[in-house]
């Protein structure tokens, strides 16, 4: 990207983080019309439409830059881990291609490495970025058609054709097609909940609102003369002028923010990347170092390349990403059962490391359902419990008061019954009583059903009227009341009057009843008396003082307060034609004030407890809402986000959008950050009246301070912050498609308490991933050590690269995944969130535990078994060093210790090799020439252990005409001179042979250029060539110079090595038993934790059965180079497994007994 392009992008990002800078809504109408070239009656001319479109563009959202899917797919192969494995795979294929013997191992290894990369890349691709999906979500919200005025005519056009200056008519149910300044309105209300989080429909009129200080409110999101792109007209009608289109709308800004804020890598992704980079650097470094060492030792280049790949493969845990992915997927499945849908698997762990939850208020912390909270009547405030049904109401009303000491309403009060009556009659909300199967619900009967919930019963009408209706129903059936008092006339609520009136007939020939509901001050102004304690009294100063105090108290709690009044219309009859045009033909004053109801969107069940749980876990919960500061603070107190005590002592605060707006205007970045830091230093914070840009800034500044931020939301306005947060959590029920697309998780029940369940699961998955990685990494040392010893000590390789992959991608996989099923530890929600800088997924202590402690013990176990098995097949440990490079290419030539085969009387005959080497395997000269050149059998090593010949371990090795010792010569050698072919040059020089005998000896040993690969000479062995893999004797045992000699063939050597390698592989499985059990806990004893993880128990069986299958299945013997082990060789690793288990139990015991000791500090991972 060019510098200019980068600068432009940065400038756009900064601009997006500021509020939309509309000023047109503050202009005088004449200035507005002149600026855009329109009039309210005629709209724009066709010429001016073209002119404005050329200036402002089409009414479309700019799509983001989209990378083609195939480029995204290919990019998955460009990460460090993939490139490392791909490079290894290529080298394997190259090695196979140029290998004269076409070793299948290289081919298999290359295929496996490519397969691992392909599977990992495909999965990552499917989890790729969501920008296009988010934009599709925005597109689905964009209005299709609208009614505009052009050239004096009303025309229906596509919404994208609108330009600033267009005059648009708005009607009930319309979707607003652009940002529009209202110039004419008739009871116009708009649903802004998706933008601002305000639960109630908002009034819209040509006038700007005035705040409590008399100052005109000009901030666009709080202006009462603006309708915003994609919001819904809730009721009424109006006409306005388009002042913002396309990207220059509030919605355009949000769309830009959502696509501009690229999601950060999750914490777990960062941890894994760091670990892979570290382990890869170590692997490559070791591979290169030992490649050079191998070259200096004279090893062939191709062989060095193959073993360099082996070292890299042994270091890199190929199964790690698969293990992490499967573990996260299993946890996501478990979370789904707890009403949390996980879209991005890595988000599971991120939630566990969260330090800040920035939560939306409406619908997340609250029920998004207006509910009556308090009533004021008889000059006293009462609490109104929300009963689901009549039995439930009786139970919750039993105490008679709330825990805070507020009394419950008194149903026997005459004033309360009158208040219920007015609230029922002056109310247009109605229950929807038709069920899904088409039948009708009898609400009166259902209210006696303890399983019925009236609070969730759908209803028509605005939120406040529904709230009143749901309070009334458990107390007095609303249908019965309305049937008893039929409606005769009504005046609907409007923004001018701020009250609603209806007139109802009364039974028994009584005069009609007028009931009034509305803004308390407006209702009280129409009253001259009040009803309290069973009687009507005239208003006086004492009443008004009590009323004012209660009204302000309820309003200060963030509750919406409504006043109620009534009047019997004496002199009027039910058949009177009531009318309000041109003015009411009946009295609407001199009413009797009966009381107040206050409503609030109440907290969801379980939310206060969930927030308390977060506080205990040292997770800060911020409320971030577009609602009024008083309302926000009131709800925050109820759900334990803030406390009055902390507000009073200054450790909690309410930050308003105006404050943030002022901070963004500070040019000095240091001073601006200082303002943010001063606010974020508070323990408890409520953010109120904030815009989408503000919400994004809140998230960014928290992240700047090192916080891991979880963001919740359900509206379109939440999409940018959802995407920017370390984890975005959308609402499944109330959430818009855009917010769901931007989020990493979706709460299916829209309940904040489900987030806390997710935090718990996230912490658990981090613990279990740590345990899984500790288990997986421990086998790296026994995988790496064989290659290091092969290169440095030149012993035959104890483990092949293919068998390493069998461990990493086979036997270790299920046990590692089984860690995801481990139960949580008791203190999981009592400890603070992990510090991402210090409490790493893979830290030094874990590396020390896995590599330097358990890994070394495992490697020792593997080498012990390897040497034991080779010894059982005739190769003592003392003869291994230096002979590994040609082990599978040439036969060893050995001298023996002792003068005969020793019978141990245990069915075994043993011999002791004194020294072994490959003699003149590479020579092409005659016997005489070799003697002159000084080529002789190496005798550099001293034997120590035994080998078995006529024992079960030798039976079935195969590779030659015989598996038993074969006596080639008599004890005196050729012609009794003690000569054998290809043995001692000194013997040939000292022999007293006649010319004929020299000729016979030469003929006997073959005078043609001897070559131990069996292609040119027999070297005196009548049964076949020394190195012929097909027909040479398996163990040529003979006498020379008074001492026994032996020479097994190459197939025998290879078979014995494969048995030893298989035994090494099986020993890794055996010691991994103990490793799996000790990794179950980081501090507790296994005897406390128990073995209740059934999947882990299955994993122990699985890895054992898989190891046995690879051992004893012929096809796998061929593919993986394994052999069917003798049963005794399975048990050589058991003592080492017991040692690992005992060591770690002792370590944990010492840590528990001394929690702050050096063992805790250095080994608790």
UniProtKB/TrEMBL annotation:
Region feature (Disordered): 191-211
GO annotation, cellular component aspect: plasma membrane
Location in the cell: Cell membrane
SUPFAM superfamilies, per database record: Calcium ATPase, transduction domain A, Calcium ATPase, transmembrane domain M, HAD-like, Metal cation-transporting ATPase, ATP-binding domain N
GO MF annotations in UniProt: ATP binding; ATP hydrolysis activity; P-type sodium:potassium-exchanging transporter activity
One BP annotation, GO: sodium ion export across plasma membrane
Span of domain Cation-transporting P-type ATPase N-terminal: 23-97
Residues in coiled coil: none
Pfam family, any one: E1-E2_ATPase
Membrane topology, from the record: Multi-pass membrane protein
Membrane-traversing stretches: 77-96, 108-126, 275-295, 301-330, 849-869
Keywords from the UniProt entry: ATP-binding, Cell membrane, Ion transport, Membrane, Nucleotide-binding, Phosphoprotein, Potassium, Potassium transport, Translocase, Transmembrane, Transmembrane helix, Transport
NCBIfam families, alphabetized: ATPase-IIC_X-K (TIGR01106), ATPase_P-type (TIGR01494)
The protein's name in its UniProt record: Cation-transporting P-type ATPase N-terminal domain-containing protein
Organism field: Ostreococcus sp. 'lucimarinus'
């Amino acid at each position: 990207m060019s510098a200019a392009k980068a600068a432009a992008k940065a400038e756009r990002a900064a601009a997006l983080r500021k509020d939309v800078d509309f000023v047109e809504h503050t202009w005088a109408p004449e200035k507005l019309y002149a600026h855009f070239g329109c009039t309210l009656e005629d709209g724009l001319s066709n010429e001016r439409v073209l002119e404005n479109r050329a200036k402002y563009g089409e009414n479309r959202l700019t799509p983001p830059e989209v990378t083609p899917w195939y480029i995204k797919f290919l990019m998955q192969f460009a990460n460090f881990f993939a490139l490392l494995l791909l490079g290894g795979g290529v080298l394997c294929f190259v090695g196979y291609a140029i290998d004269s013997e076409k070793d299948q191992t290289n081919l298999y290894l290359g295929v496996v490495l490519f397969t691992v990369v392909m599977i990992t890349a495909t999965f990552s691709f499917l989890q790729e970025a969501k920008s296009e999906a988010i934009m599709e979500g925005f597109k689905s919200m964009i209005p299709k058609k609208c009614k505009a005025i052009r050239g004096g005519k009303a025309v229906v056009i596509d919404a994208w054709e609108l330009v600033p200056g267009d005059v648009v008519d708005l009607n009930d149910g319309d979707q607003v097609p652009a940002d529009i300044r209202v110039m004419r309105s008739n009871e116009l209300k708009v649903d802004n909940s998706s933008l601002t989080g305000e639960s109630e429909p908002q009034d819209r009129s040509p006038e700007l609102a005035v705040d409590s200080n008399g100052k005109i409110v000009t901030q666009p999101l709080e202006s009462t003369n603006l309708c915003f792109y994609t919001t819904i007209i809730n009721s009424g009608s109006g006409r306005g002028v388009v002042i913002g289109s396309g990207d220059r709308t509030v919605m355009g800004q949000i769309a830009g923010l959502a696509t501009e804020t690229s999601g950060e890598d999750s914490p777990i992704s960062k941890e894994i990347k760091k670990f892979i980079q570290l382990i890869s650097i170590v692997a490559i470094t070791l591979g290169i170092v030992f490649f050079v060492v191998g070259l200096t030792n004279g090893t062939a280049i191709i062989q060095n390349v193959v073993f360099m790949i082996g070292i890299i493969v042994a270091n890199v845990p190929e199964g790690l990403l698969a293990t992490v992915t499967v573990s996260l997927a299993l946890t996501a499945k478990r979370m789904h059962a707890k009403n949390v849908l996980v879209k991005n698997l890595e988000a599971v762990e991120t939630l566990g490391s969260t330090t800040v939850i920035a939560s939306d208020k409406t619908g997340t912390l609250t029920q998004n359902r207006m509910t009556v909270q308090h009533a004021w009547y008889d000059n006293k405030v009462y609490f109104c419990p929300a009963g689901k049904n009549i039995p439930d109401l009786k139970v919750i009303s039993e105490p008679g008061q709330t825990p805070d000491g507020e009394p419950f309403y008194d149903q026997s009060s005459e004033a309360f019954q009158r208040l219920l009556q007015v609230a029922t009659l002056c109310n247009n909300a109605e229950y929807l009583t038709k069920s899904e199967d088409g039948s009708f619900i009898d609400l009166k009967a259902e209210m006696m059903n303890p399983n019925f919930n009236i609070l969730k019963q759908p209803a028509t009408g605005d939120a406040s009227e529904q709230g009143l209706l749901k309070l009334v129903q458990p107390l007095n059936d609303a249908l019965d009341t309305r049937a008893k008092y039929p409606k005769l006339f009504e005046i609907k609520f409007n923004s001018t009057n701020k009250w609603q009136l209806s007139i109802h007939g009364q039974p028994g020939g009584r005069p009609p009843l007028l009931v009034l509901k509305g803004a308390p001050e407006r209702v009280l102004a129409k009253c001259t008396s009040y009803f309290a304690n069973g009687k009507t009294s005239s208003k006086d100063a004492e009443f008004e003082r009590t009323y004012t105090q209660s009204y302000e108290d309820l309003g200060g709690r963030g509750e919406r307060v409504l006043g109620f009044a009534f009047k019997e219309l004496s002199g009027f009859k039910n058949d009177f034609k009531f009318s309000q045009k041109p003015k009411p033909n009946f009295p609407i004053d001199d009413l009797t004030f009966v009381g107040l109801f206050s409503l609030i969107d109440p907290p969801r069940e379980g939310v206060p407890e969930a927030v308390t749980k977060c506080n205990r876990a040292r997770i800060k919960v911020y409320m971030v809402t577009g609602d009024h500061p008083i309302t926000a603070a009131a709800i925050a107190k109820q759900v334990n986000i803030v406390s009055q005590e902390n507000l009073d002592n200054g450790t909690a605060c309410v930050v308003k959008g105006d404050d943030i707006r002022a901070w963004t205007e500070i040019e000095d970045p240091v001073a601006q950050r200082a303002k943010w830091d001063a606010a974020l230093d508070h323990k408890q914070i409520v953010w109120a009246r904030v815009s989408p840009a503000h919400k994004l800034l809140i998230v960014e500044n928290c992240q700047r301070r090192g916080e891991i931020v979880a963001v919740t939301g359900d509206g379109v306005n939440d999409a940018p912050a959802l995407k920017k947060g370390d984890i975005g959590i959308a609402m499944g029920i109330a959430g818009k498609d855009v917010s769901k697309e931007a989020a990493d998780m979706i709460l299916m029940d829209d309940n904040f308490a489900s987030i806390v369940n997710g935090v718990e699961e996230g912490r658990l998955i981090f613990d279990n991933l740590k345990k899984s990685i500790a288990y997986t990494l421990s086998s790296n040392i026994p995988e790496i050590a064989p290659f290091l010893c092969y290169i440095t000590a030149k012993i035959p390789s104890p483990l092949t690269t293919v068998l390493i992959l069998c461990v990493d991608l086979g036997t270790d996989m299920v046990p590692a995944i089984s860690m995801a099923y481990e139960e949580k530890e008791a203190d999981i929600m009592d400890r603070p969130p992990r510090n991402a800088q210090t409490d790493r997924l893979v830290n030094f202590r874990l590396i020390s535990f896995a590599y330097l402690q358990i890994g070394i013990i495992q490697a020792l176990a593997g080498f012990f078994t390897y040497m034991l098995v080779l010894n059982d097949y005739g190769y003592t440990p003392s003869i291994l060093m230096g002979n590994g490079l040609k082990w599978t290419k040439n036969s060893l030539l050995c001298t023996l210790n002792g003068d005969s085969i020793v019978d141990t009387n245990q069915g075994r005959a043993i011999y002791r090799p004194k020294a072994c080497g490959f003699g003149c395997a590479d020579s092409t000269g005659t016997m005489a020439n070799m003697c002159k050149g000084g080529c002789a059998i190496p005798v550099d090593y001293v034997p120590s252990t035994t080998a078995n010949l006529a024992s079960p371990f030798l039976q079935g090795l195969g590779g030659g005409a015989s598996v038993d010792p074969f006596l080639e010569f008599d004890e005196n050698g050729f012609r009794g001179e003690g000569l054998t072919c290809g043995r001692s040059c000194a013997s040939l020089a000292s022999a007293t042979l006649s010319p004929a005998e020299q000729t016979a000896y030469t003929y006997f040993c073959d005078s043609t250029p001897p070559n131990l690969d069996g292609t040119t000479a027999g070297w005196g062995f009548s049964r076949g060539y020394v190195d012929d893999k097909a027909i040479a004797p398996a163990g040529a045992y003979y006498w020379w110079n008074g001492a026994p000699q032996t020479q097994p063939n190459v197939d025998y050597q290879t078979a014995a090595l494969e048995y030893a390698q298989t035994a090494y592989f099986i020993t890794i499985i055996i010691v991994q038993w103990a490793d799996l059990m000790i990794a179950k806990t980081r501090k507790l004893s296994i005897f406390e934790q128990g073995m209740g993880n059934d999947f882990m128990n299955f994993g122990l069986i699985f890895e054992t059965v898989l190891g046995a299958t690879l051992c004893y299945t012929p096809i796998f013997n061929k593919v993986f180079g394994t052999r069917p082990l003798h049963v005794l060789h399975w048990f050589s690793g058991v003592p080492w497994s017991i040692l690992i288990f005992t060591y770690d139990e002792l370590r944990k015991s010492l840590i528990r007994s001394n929690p702050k000791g050096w063992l805790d500090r250095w080994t608790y991972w």
